[in-house]
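Quick question, first post here. What does this chain look like in 3D?
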Amino acid sequence: MAETRSVHMEPHFYQALLNPDAAKLCQNQLRSDPLHLGTLNPSHAALLNDTYEFGGNDHSLRYLRNLIEDFPNACLLDQKGQLVVWSLSDALGCLTHGYALPEYRGKGHMKTVMQALARKLHAKDFALYTRVRPENKISKQYLRGQGFHLLPWTKYILFFIPNHMKLQGQHSDFISWGDWK
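> Answer (accepted):
Ran it through. Tokens below.
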């Protein structure tokens, strides 16, 4: 059916991680000096789109802008107000799109952002969970260090990519279907 509609389906596989004690993560002291904690706004979507695995096109830009506008998020801004570390959540309350600019990695800044976002999600009674590509060992190690447990499920997400975009080497970020196995 996808071929008759000139669409390519591309599966992506993720491992699920859950933090069973979100309240404990939320109690930790936030520290961010000289950076300051903030909330993403739609003007940040362009930078997120540049760093997003499926970004670089209008579809992913709209997707990221919608996540920013509609769901809890947290970020750190430098002294000039420039975005340096961030994490978003999606419609299911899943932590997603956590990223630190290279010069801000390994300094504990992601923990500050994750704690801030965990507080927002916990206040709304969401479980604290995320998904990670199986090959992303660094993220899995980091998340385990923050109290997350690897779940025995794999999340399958199908991306529908119009053929004209596939030929141009672009990805569409229209998630059409996902299932936990």
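The chain has one domain: 7-165.
Residues 166-181 have pLDDT under 50 and may be disordered.
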